[in-house]
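To whoever is on call:

I kicked off a structure prediction for a single chain this morning and the downstream step that reads the tokens threw a length-mismatch warning. I double-checked the sequence; it's 95 residues and nothing unusual in it as far as I can see. Pasting both halves so you can look.
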Amino acid sequence: MSIETESFDLTFGSIHYAGTRLTIPIDDDEYMVYRVEIANHRRGSSSLVTFHLDRDDSRPEHKTVGQSASAYLSVDEAKQIMQALQQAIKEADDE
């Protein structure tokens, strides 16, 4: 199981959306995955950091089932989340 990474750079009208999409397998058959998008969401001079998480189950015997959540963050909010992630990673790595 490996994580797929792709970059994207899209424009929808006056909105520019550029970032990275990760696809993270949850099971060995890779039917269940997390999709994480982290991007700069810019409209004019206003810029936000977006975080979008999907969880998809596309096993053949099921209809595709998905759950998703999104957050639009200020740069300061995104920095605070990044610091918390770095701290949690450091603590988990030290164990």
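Update from on-call: the warning came from a stale cache, not from the record. Cleared it. Sanity check on the structure: Residues 4-94 form one domain.
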